[in-house]
Automatic annotation (TrEMBL):
This is NAD(P)-dependent dehydrogenase (Short-subunit alcohol dehydrogenase family). CDD domains: SDR_c (cd05233). InterPro entries: NAD(P)-bd_dom_sf (IPR036291), SDR_fam (IPR002347). It comes from Novosphingobium fluoreni. Pfam families: adh_short_C2. It comes from the Bacteria. Belongs to the short-chain dehydrogenases/reductases (SDR) family. GO terms for molecular function: oxidoreductase activity. SUPFAM superfamilies: NAD(P)-binding Rossmann-fold domains. PANTHER family: OXIDOREDUCTASE, SHORT-CHAIN DEHYDROGENASE/REDUCTASE FAMILY (AFU_ORTHOLOGUE AFUA_5G02870), SHORT-CHAIN DEHYDROGENASE_REDUCTASE FAMILY PROTEIN. Keywords: Oxidoreductase.
Length: 295
């Protein structure tokens, strides 16, 4: 009954950035519900592995190697999709990324890349997708990925955060504009997620300190930060994509779903050791965090 209400079997999805990590999980999640897949990614090995898994599920999978930084690559991908399939139902813009750096150290070229990689290609992807969706007059679902950094003051990620935040109002505006076209547009917003892309964004010294930290310390820090106690997995994000792609969400458009274990709800309330939830450590928490401190 749930599969029938979801109404995904036989549909076609494109995933820009669908070859590895969170994107691969979304590709497989959709394929498991009977969706045929087209993947655009620059990770050749990851995309080949994801394609093999999709085909093992009995679904068709076409791929193209390319970079969202390239206007021509994205255009050629959609041309391929139009040739390979007679319908398009689902668009997932999951590609993105950044390297952590102080704002004043950035260059114009780096800023332009951050904006294109995290916002500009999304505009192009949607503009190219809509005519393909409308060929069959069935409507469709567009799902963009942003980040918690779009909703808070993310020092060290300022231009990236601004580009991701731009997706939020694009989503709202297009939800209204596309409403009568029966095309829905929504947004998935993760926070910290154990993925290669998230880890590679960090400064080398910070990444090295995390690699050297005992796993139990990392787990304890996540339990402090995330109200649910554990980070959302790529599969958790994929499940949200499947929901937003399906008819189970047919009246949902223009919204953002935070898949973060509650960090966006907390917005700074941390479960400090020895002190419990508070915006800043107090009392026994200070003693635990700073041995030798007098309170």
């Amino acid at each position: 009954m749930l599969d029938e209400k979801a109404n995904l079997n036989g549909k076609v999805a494109v995933l820009l950035g669908g070859g590895f990590g969170i994107g691969a999980a979304a590709s497989l999640g959709l394929a498991q519900t009977g969706v045929d897949i087209a993947i655009f990614d620059k990770d050749v090995a990851g995309m080949a592995e994801t394609k093999a898994h999709v085909e093992a599920l009995g679904r068709r999978c076409v791929t193209m190697v390319g970079d969202v930084l390239s206007v021509d690559d994205v255009r050629k991908f959609y041309e391929m999709v139009g040739q390979e399939f007679d319908r398009l139902d689902i668009v997932v813009n999951v590609a993105g990324g950044v390297k952590q750096r102080d704002f004043l150290q950035g260059t114009d070229a780096e800023d332009a890349e951050d904006i294109r990689r995290n916002f500009g290609y999304v505009i192009q992807s949607i503009r190219l997708a809509v005519p393909l969706i409308e060929r069959a007059s069935r409507g469709g679902s567009i799902i963009n990925f942003t980040t918690i950094e779009a909703y808070r003051g993310a020092a060290g990620f300022s231009v990236y955060a601004g580009a991701k935040a731009a997706n939020a109002n694009l989503r709202r505006a297009l939800a209204v504009e596309f409403g009568t076209r029966n095309i829905r547009i929504n947004e998935v917003t993760p926070d910290t997620t154990p993925s290669r892309g998230n880890m590679s964004a960090l400064k080398p010294d910070l990444l090295k300190s995390m690699e050297d930290a005992p796993i139990e310390d990392i787990e304890a820090s996540m339990a402090m930060y995330i109200p649910r106690g554990a980070a959302a997995s790529p599969e958790d994000l994929a499940d949200t994509v499947v929901f937003l792609a399906s008819d189970l969400s047919r009246s949902i458009t223009g919204i953002n779903i935070h898949v973060d274990g509650g960090t966006s709800a907390a917005f700074g309330f941390i479960n400090w050791p020895g002190g419990g939830y508070c915006p800043a450590p107090v009392g026994e928490s200070i003693k635990k965090l700073f041995p030798g401190a007098t309170v």
